Each structure stands twice: as structure tokens, then as C-alpha cells.
């Protein structure tokens, strides 16, 4: 069944989009990620113009993070103060990102920039995760438990000025790295159409030493607002948010996520991380191939000021 | 199919009525030949299920020479031309192993879509020179570069690429034999409206040739617009971007919230 997308201005198959949403929802439920990093490339493979895929991807991320953040709020594993500080940085980063987005689009280099960012970020995050999870798997098989990191351990980040206390996270840390992490995530969110959870979670754990149980809830909370802000700015400056496309993806996604969560409970943490790492690397590889292989058509058309 | 049938009906009914008035008047005057086309509908609406359409345009010759008509030496070419846009053509080249958009050429007033129907193959109607003079046919329309001082070789290369991309996208098409004479002076043309035909004012033009010589041209306008829901969404997104964005965010949160309720884990 075909449906005409009013903003993308093309006809697409409803079931393909629902299935795409469900598949990504399943994976995001399985691995506990927003799924933006999968949805945007999938939409681009399905010939949705990249500018629309990115902006609509950001919109879709809101839906999945919102339901996740709600359940974390009920369990008290959401640090609002930390979330708001990350958000303050996020808004600055996101505004800069949308500006860069428009600039690159007018130069005709947007698609290239999006692809390179995806390849570099997914490649490095996926690679690190794969190494880490394989090490854990090997260690646990050997029977010697990995020594836990002491929460009292400090690094250079903890010597920065302007310290602030975050009670829920049991942290006393400078706001500078918090704002910086927020800004980077905001920037990536507006250019790549991702929530940024796959960068935020390791950054909070390894750089700021936020307790793991608070990290996911706080990250989801911040992502809701960053993606909402990104959606608003894209909608008002680039007119690239397709509400019909976003709805189709979210309906599929919400349903798929439930089955993903159930499937995830049957797997062990490090197995899950290894699988997620392979998935992330596969997406990166697919995008990298497009960069290096001679395109079928060297020429492309675009309307100045539009996708 | 139903969209096509209804479109055809809407076009046909008033045209027949109009012909009834015109034909006797034309017979009385011994003026040179002319051509007229009529569109009964001034707009076509694109709805959720739109996947392209065949548009039928009716027209008539005025004062045809019966002798020439009998020999089949009248030819008609009908064009449906989409709104003109500025277009940038970019070319990818390899830089350090990566394919990057490097060179580009900008063109002005490029018809977004261009659909042609003819009575006979192009080469049988008239000379290539007159096609170029009339800027007629997907291969002949004049594409004006924004920077006229550019290298002519580069401009020719990008002009060719622009045509090829448009043809490949189905936006520029030719339908040889798409114009049929129904009687000595009544003809019917079928032009293709691509699935991603742009909204805006499209221009239908008919060219009359007699013994391979261009005689006259006539034109009519057609508005293509999104209908109902699609139109409302498009307008809202472009005129009230911030509100539309807020609505998208609210909807996304609503879906997320509903999802967490419907599938709550106990």
C-alpha cells in the first residue's frame, strides 16, 4: 500500500516503513538504545532524501526515549539536575549543528558529511564496544572476575573548576565537561538525526563516573529535549520534518521495542554488547562502501536551498 | 485507473460542448490554420495514493485544409511543462578514494517536469533545427546556465547530465504516438504526469505543424496541488514551521507515552 509523504514529496510503501520501524524498535528494545543511528541510514538506503531522513529521525527518537525516560523516572534513576546541565550544553550544540547542516546543504556536501560522520563514529564506537565485550566474555570464561573500578578514582576531569553537586548521581564535578558533552551530543543530534545515547552513555560512565543505573535514564531524559529542540529548529528553518513518516516509524517502533525488551532478557550483558557492536559496525561498513565505490551516477540534481 | 478515468471525464465533457460552438464559426472563416486546446479542469489534486497519472488533453485544428488533412500532413506536438526552478547539477569526483561532489553548474528556469506527446516520431515531423528553435522536446529544451560566461564544454557536459537525470527520474518523458486525430480537426493527447510531479502551475502547450513546417502554438494552464490532508500538512510545515515542529514533538511524546502504557510490564 503506497502513501504519499507530504514533506518528502514521494510515494512510499506503508508496510516497508512500519517494518523498518518495528525492526529498529526491536533492536532498540533489545539493546536499550534509541535507534536513531539505525533509522536514519535505513531511510537513506530507502531513497528518502538525507535531509529529511535526519530531521525525521530526530523526531522519531523522541518517541522511543520518552517512554524509556518515563519508566526510569518512576524508578528514581533519573538525575534531573545533571540532565538539565547536559541539556543547556545540548541546546548550544544543536543550534550550531542546524546552522552547519544548512550551510553544508547549500554547498552540496551534506550527504558526504553525514556519511563520514556515521562511518567514523559508528566505526569507532562499534569497534571499542566489540573489543570491550569480547574481553569481558573471555575473562568470564576464564573464571577470573574483572576488577571493578573504584568510584573514588579521579582523573583530570575532576580537577577542573566550577564544581557542582549532583545528588542523585552522588557526584561533585565541574560543569565544564558536563556542558561540553551536552554540546557535542546536541551537535551530532542535529546533523546525524540521532539521539546520541551510544556516545552519551560511555561518556557519562567513563569520563564523569556517573553510576551506571542513573546513566541510561538521565541520557534518555536529555535526549528527549535535545531531539525535541532539534526537531523544532529543523522544522522551522529547513522544513524537513515529515510528520507522516515519523508517525509510521514510531508506530512500528513502539510495538517492536516491546518484543526486543523481552528477547533482551534472555541474553547476557556482554553478549548483547557484542551483538550491538557487530550491528553498529555493519551499518558503518555499509555506509563506508558507498563512499568508496564509484556511484552509478556521477551527476546529481538539487534545487538551491532545498534537499 | 479510477483517477485517470475521472480526470478524462472532467476534461472531456466541457470540451465537447465548447467544440460544438467553435466548429461552425471556424468553417465560415477562410483564415489560415490555427490550433486550440482545452482543459476543463484547472487543477489536478495529489492525494495520499497518488502514483502518477495519464492526463488527457483535447484540442482542435481551426480551418484545416481538407486536402492536407486527408494526406495526414498535419502534425501536433503537445507538451506539459512543470514549473520552472533553479537547479544545481553536481558532479562527483574521486578525492583520496572518496567520491565527493566537486564541480557544479547552476541552471535557471529549468522546467521541473516535461512531458511530450506527438502524432509521429520526432524525425518524421520536422527538422532538428526547428525543434531547437522552438526549444521543443526533452532533448531540445533550452537550459539556461546561471553563469553564461562559463566554459562551453563544461556547460554542455552538465546540460547533458541534467537532461539524462531528468529522463532517468521519469520527469522528462516522450510519448510518440500519444497524440491521435479523432476526426479531421479534433485530436486527443495523452501526457504523463510523473508520480513526483511538482505542485504548482503547469503549462500545456500544443504545436501545430503542416507539411513539416511550424504553424501555430496554443497553450493552457493547469494547477497541480496537494489535496486535503497532504496539502494541510505541507502548508502548515511551510507557513507555521515552529508550530508544526511543536506538533511533531507532541505527537512523538504522545506515541511514546501510549507505548509505555499499552505495553506496560507488570
Give a concise summary.
Chain A: Its main location: membrane. Chain A: Keywords: Cell membrane, Membrane, Transmembrane, Transmembrane helix. The complex is a heterodimer of chains A (307) and B (266). Chain A is mostly helical and 307 residues long.
Q: What's the helix and strand layout?
A:
The complex is a heterodimer of chains A (307) and B (266).
Chain A: E1 2-5, E2 10-13, H1 14-31, H2 36-45, H3 50-74, H4 80-107, H5 110-142, E3 163-166, E4 171-174, H6 175-192, H7 197-207, H8 212-238, H9 243-264, H10 269-292, E5 299-302
Antiparallel strand pairs in A: 1-2, 3-4
Helix pairs in contact in A: 1-9, 2-3, 3-6, 3-8, 3-9, 4-6, 4-8, 5-10, 6-7, 6-8, 7-8
Chain B: H1 2-28, E1 34-38, E2 43-46, E3 53-62, H2 66-70, E4 74-81, E5 84-95, E6 98-111, E7 114-118, H3 122-125, H4 128-134, E8 144-145, H5 152-168, E9 172-176, E10 179-181, E11 186-193, E12 200-210, E13 213-226, H6 228-239, H7 241-262
Parallel strand pairs in B: 2-13, 7-9
Antiparallel strand pairs in B: 1-3, 3-11, 4-7, 4-12, 5-6, 6-8, 10-11, 12-13
Describe the protein's architecture and organization.
The complex is a heterodimer of chains A (307) and B (266). Chain A is mainly alpha-helical. Helix content of chain A is 70%, strand content 7%. Chain A has one domain (2-140, 160-291). Chain A has helices at 14-31, 36-45, 50-74, 80-107, 110-142, 175-192, 197-207, 212-238, 243-264, 269-292, and strands spanning 2-5, 10-13, 163-166, 171-174, 299-302. In chain A, helix 3 packs across helix 6, helix 4 (80-107) runs parallel beside helix 8 and helix 6 (175-192) packs antiparallel against helix 7. With 266 residues, chain B is an alpha+beta fold. Chain B is built from 7 helices and 13 strands. Chain B has a 6-stranded mixed beta sheet. The longest helix of chain B is centred in the N-terminal third of the chain and has 27 residues, at 2-28. Chain B is flat and about 80 Å long. At the A-B interface, strand 1, helix 3, helix 5, helix 8 and helix 9 of A face strand 5, strand 6, helix 5, helix 6 and helix 7 of B. Strand 5 of chain A pairs antiparallel with strand 5 (84-95) of chain B. Chain A: It is found in: Cell membrane; Membrane. Chain A: It comes from Aquamicrobium lusatiense.
Amino acid at each position: 500500500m503506497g502513501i504519499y509523504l507530504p514533506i518528502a514529496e514521494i510515494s512510499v510503501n506503508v508496510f516497508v516503513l512500519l517494518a523498518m520501524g518495528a525492526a529498529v524498535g526491536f533492536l532498540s528494545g533489545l539493546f536499550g538504545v534509541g535507534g536513531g543511528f539505525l533509522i536514519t541510514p535505513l531511510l537513506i538506503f530507502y531513497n528518502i532524501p538525507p535531509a529529511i531522513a535526519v530531521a525525521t529521525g530526530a523526531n522519531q527518537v523522541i518517541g522511543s526515549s520518552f517512554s524509556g525516560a518515563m519508566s526510569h523516572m518512576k524508578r528514581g534513576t533519573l538525575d534531573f539536575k545533571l540532565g538539565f546541565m547536559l541539556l543547556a550544553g545540548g541546546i548550544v550544540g544543536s543550534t550550531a549543528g542546524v546552522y552547519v547542516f544548512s550551510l553544508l546543504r547549500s554547498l552540496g556536501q551534506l550527504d558526504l558529511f553525514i556519511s563520514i560522520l556515521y562511518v567514523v563514529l559508528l566505526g569507532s564506537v562499534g569497534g571499542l564496544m566489540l573489543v570491550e565485550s569480547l574481553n569481558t566474555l573471555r575473562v568470564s570464561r576464564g573464571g577470573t572476575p574483572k576488577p571493578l573500578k573504584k568510584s573514588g578514582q579521579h582523573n583530570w576531569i575532576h580537577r577542573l573548576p566550577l564544581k557542582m553537586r549532583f545528588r542523585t548521581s552522588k557526584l561533585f564535578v565541574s560543569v565544564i565537561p558536563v556542558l561540553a558533552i551536552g554540546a557535542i551530543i546536541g551537535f551530532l543530534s542535529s546533523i546525524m538525526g540521532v539521539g546520541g545515547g551510544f556516545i552519551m552513555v560511555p561518556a557519562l560512565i567513563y569520563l564523569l563516573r556517573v553510576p551506571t543505573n542513573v546513566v541510561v535514564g538521565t541520557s534518555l531524559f536529555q535526549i528527549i529535549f535535545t531531539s525535541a529542540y532539534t526537531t523544532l529548529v529543523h522544522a522551522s528553518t529547513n522544513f524537513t520534518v515529515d510528520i507522516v513518516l515519523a508517525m509510521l516509524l514510531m508506530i512500528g517502533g513502539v510495538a517492536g521495542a516491546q518484543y526486543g525488551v523481552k528477547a533482551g532478557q534472555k541474553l547476557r550483558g556482554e553478549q548483547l554488547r557484542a551483538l550491538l557492536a557487530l550491528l553498529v559496525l555493519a551499518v558503518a561498513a555499509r555506509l563506508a562502501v558507498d563512499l568508496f565505490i564509484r556511484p552509478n551516477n556521477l551527476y546529481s540534481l538539487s534545487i538551491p536551498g532545498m534537499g | 485507473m479510477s483517477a485517470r478515468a475521472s480526470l478524462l471525464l472532467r476534461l472531456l465533457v466541457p470540451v465537447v460542448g465548447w467544440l460544438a460552438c467553435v466548429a461552425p464559426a471556424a468553417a465560415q472563416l477562410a483564415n489560415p490554420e490555427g490550433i486550440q486546446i482545452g482543459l476543463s479542469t484547472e487543477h489536478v489534486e495529489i492525494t495520499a495514493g497518488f502514483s502518477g497519472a495519464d492526463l488527457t488533453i483535447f484540442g482542435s485544428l481551426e480551418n484545416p485544409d481538407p486536402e492536407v488533412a486527408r494526406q495526414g500532413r498535419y502534425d501536433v506536438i503537445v507538451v506539459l511543462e512543470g514549473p520552472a526552478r533553479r537547479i544545481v547539477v553536481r558532479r562527483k569526483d574521486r578525492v583520496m578514494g572518496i567520491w565527493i561532489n566537486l564541480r557544479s553548474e547552476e541552471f535557471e528556469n529549468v522546467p521541473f517536469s516535461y512531458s511530450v506527446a506527438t502524432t509521429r516520431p520526432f524525425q518524421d515531423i520536422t527538422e532538428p533545427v526547428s525543434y531547437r528553435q522552438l526549444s521543443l522536446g526533452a532533448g531540445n529544451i533550452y537550459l539556461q546556465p546561471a553563469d553564461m560566461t562559463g566554459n562551453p564544454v563544461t556547460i554542455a557536459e552538465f546540460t547533458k547530465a541534467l537532461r539524462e537525470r531528468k529522463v532517468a527520474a521519469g520527469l522528462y518523458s516522450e510519448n510518440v504516438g500519444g497524440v491521435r486525430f479523432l476526426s479531421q480537426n479534433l485530436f486527443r493527447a495523452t501526457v504523463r504526469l510523473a508520480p513526483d510531479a511538482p505542485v504548482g502551475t503547469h503549462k500545456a502547450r500544443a504545436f501545430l505543424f503542416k507539411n513539416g513546417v511550424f504553424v501555430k502554438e496554443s497553450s493552457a494552464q493547469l494547477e497541480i496541488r496537494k489535496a486535503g490532508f497532504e496539502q494541510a500538512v505541507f502548508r502548515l510545515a511551510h507557513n507555521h514551521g515552529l508550530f508544526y515542529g511543536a506538533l511533531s514533538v507532541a505527537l512523538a511524546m504522545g506515541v511514546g507515552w501510549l507505548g509505555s502504557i499499552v505495553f506496560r510490564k507488570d
